[in-house]
Amino acid sequence: MSTNTPSRRRVLGGMAATAATVVGWNVATQTWATAAEAGRGHGGGGSVSPVPALDGTLKTSAADLVQFSKDFGNLVPDITPWAVLVPGSVNDIVKMVNFARANNLKIAANGRSGTGDDLESHSNYGQAAVPGGISIDSRGLSKVVSIGANTAVVEAGVTWHQLTEAALAKGKMPPAMPDYMHLSIGGTISVGGIGGTVGKYGLAVDTIESINIVTGAGQLLTASPSVRPDLFNAALAGGGQVGIIVRATVRIVPPKERVVVFNLVYNDVATYLADAEKVLAEGRFEVQAGELQRKPDDSGWRYKMELGATYTGTAPAREPLIAGLRDVRSEAVIDDMAFLDYVYRFDAYVEYYKEADYWDQPKPWLSLFLPASKVKQFLQIAEADLTANDLGVGFVLTYPYRTSKLRRPMAVQPNDSVGYLFDLLRFPHPGEPDIAGMLEQNRRLYDKAVALGAKRYLVGAIPRMTPADWKRHFGNRYSDLCNAKRRYDPAGILTPGQGFFA
Fold this sequence. Notes:
Elements: H1 8-16, E1 22-26, E2 31-34, H2 35-40, E3 48-50, E4 57-59, H3 62-65, E5 83-86, H4 90-102, E6 106-110, E7 113-115, E8 118-120, E9 133-137, E10 144-147, E11 151-155, H5 160-168, H6 185-191, H7 198-201, E12 208-215, E13 220-223, H8 229-235, E14 243-251, E15 258-266, H9 269-282, E16 287-294, E17 301-311, H10 318-321, E18 333-338, H11 339-343, H12 346-355, E19 366-371, H13 372-385, H14 388-391, E20 395-402, E21 418-425, H15 435-451, E22 455-456, H16 467-474, H17 478-488
């Protein structure tokens, strides 16, 4: 989808104007107008479109905009918006969506998740970017509204960590969570949200009961499987194309107290896949994940299966849990820990990445859903293509799940009863990594995966995605997405960074 790409003169002009209070958008010059300019009729008497009165703040200074000048992937240059809305209410979002539509400006939500002062968009390849438009800082809506018996109501800027802590205080927790818990819920459910419990609970979007959403037509609507199901289905895992999610009702369940974690190592792909699918079919574990790793002597690749059996009270007998699997007992690493420690296990990795200067490196990630019938073939292709340097200090997740557990139609799946996640999470070494080469490798692996029947997860960095690529990706769901786009975002102002449409 095309965007209003700003010229350098217009951007600098817009930033300079923010030395005084911005009161409107100058339609003639495509810059923000100050009170003085509006009073002088700058650019034509009727050309200044006034900014509506807001409960929050519309920021246009260079210092504020630079914080939105990159995303987590740090791969796309010059994604600075022209303004940032920090909403003080949902009504602010309604007003600014209507303002954007009236002035032909793009607008998108920015999750601004993370920890401490390290808040950023966690899109990987400019998906949440709106150069020449308005970015909505979701942290302006970060309230846990209520915790009930079976559901929690949260604003879109709430992180999974915040929800988990609030729910635990009431004896509950969300069942399906991402591996990194400091992501905003609104951003996560816009793409799907995957973690090690996908085999049991599906994606995070599969635990959403209803949403409140501001459509591209400027309407605040409620959507659920029974109320405006077309909007509900297009919004969840739909890449922000039909509206700005402002509130979600999330299913919650009784918490798990402890977990026994098994890490089983395999030196060949066939045995790993056979055992992984056996474990999935028998449903022995709450958590099932897996990883493609370099061997310790760097002579090739091996596989690790990570399994978590949760319990309260007496720990389960360990031997029956891994009975019938390859004889891995001598190599198995087994931990017994508080379940919450397991849920937050990636926090330690994040601290290391930040301290060792990996966090701000460009990160060309690639996330795919593979059909089980072709997974061995693809993993052998990936093993031959990838080197240790391609990962840096990152990792490759790969593990099975039942595609029937993923019920939201825009989270498009391979045509197999079992799918495999393939998640190439690179953290390149500081210095001069070959980022261009890694992006080309992503494209190469993506094309080979698609030829085998794979689908992509909406995060990740794949260069040169065209509307034809996206049409092939969505398949028979593409017409539903297009119909929802026309109905709920008729001016095409929402989330241009996805590039789904011409």
